[in-house]
């Protein structure tokens, strides 16, 4: 994205949530979060952070600098601690963590279309990359939600922001947390070019049910490895295969549960040779 795209862009806009809102406490937890604003995925070794900072030494002096590709890829491959990354950076992409405003709140998730070139068939939040005309992370999240599932901005209230996560392609992804009018559930419709299915998971279910270890095939160089990692495998209707929530989406959900509700789940990636 050209540097001009960063001019005037606001990552975290002001949030105003009424004390009478069922999500007031969640909004307070998000606002009071004092940890790192960029969370690297669980990985391998902390020495990469110093190398990454050296790579970005020149751009670091500029306000709201963005990580260059070599820096982000180095961090993605080598960072061990999820709290090791501390940068003044803008997001490359934003996702909307949409929670229904009802007695048993639910989180909106989607299964990406099977014909996509990236993350085909995987579970994700609605969201996408920042465009030149976008003025804020909030605007990116709203635009993508409208494009992907026809969610109207009038039915959404901003609650706050989670720390950015680094995707496996090295993108900085800002999760934007919002409540939505439960009546909106009736009109949401997935864009068939991008989404095969939209579905909902109750927050209470996520708080009460820890993710279990799942094994995925992972291609590394010319070798197929077994990737062991936590995931929620949710059987929604008993007919289709379970929806598996893992990877970046799982990490964002786990971060929401920890910061917003005090429920902590360890997240890890462990590679083993396939037998």
TrEMBL record:
It comes from the Bacteria. The keyword Transmembrane helix does not apply. Its cofactor is Mg(2+); Mn(2+). Residues 90-223 form the Nudix hydrolase domain. GO terms for molecular function: coenzyme A diphosphatase activity; metal ion binding. Keywords: Hydrolase, Magnesium, Manganese, Metal-binding. Signal peptide: none annotated. This is Putative NUDIX hydrolase. It comes from Moraxella caviae.
């Amino acid at each position: 994205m050209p540097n001009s795209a960063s001019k005037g862009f606001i990552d975290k806009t002001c949030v105003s949530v009424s004390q009478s809102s069922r999500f007031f406490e969640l909004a307070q937890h998000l606002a009071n979060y004092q940890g790192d604003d960029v969370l690297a995925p669980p990985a391998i070794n902390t020495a990469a952070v110093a190398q990454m900072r050296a790579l970005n030494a020149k751009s670091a002096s500029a306000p709201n600098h963005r990580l260059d590709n070599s820096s982000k890829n180095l961090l993605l491959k080598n960072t061990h601690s999820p709290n090791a990354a501390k940068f003044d950076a803008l997001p490359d992409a934003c996702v909307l963590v949409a929670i229904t405003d009802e007695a048993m709140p639910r989180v909106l998730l989607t299964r990406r279309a099977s014909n996509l070139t990236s993350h085909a068939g995987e579970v994700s939040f609605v969201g996408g990359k920042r465009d030149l005309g976008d003025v804020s992370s909030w605007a990116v999240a709203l635009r993508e939600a409208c494009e992907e599932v026809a969610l109207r901005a009038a039915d959404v209230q901003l609650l706050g922001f989670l720390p950015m996560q680094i995707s496996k392609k090295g993108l900085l992804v800002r999760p934007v947390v919002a409540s939505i009018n439960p009546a909106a559930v009736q009109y949401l419709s997935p864009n068939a070019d991008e989404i095969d299915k939209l579905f909902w998971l109750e927050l209470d279910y996520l708080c009460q049910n820890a993710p279990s270890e799942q094994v995925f095939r992972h291609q590394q160089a010319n070798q197929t490895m077994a990737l062991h990692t936590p995931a929620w495998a949710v059987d929604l209707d008993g007919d289709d295969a379970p929806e598996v929530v893992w990877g970046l989406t799982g990490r964002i959900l786990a971060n929401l549960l920890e910061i917003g509700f005090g429920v902590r789940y360890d997240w890890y990636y462990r590679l083993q040779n396939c037998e």
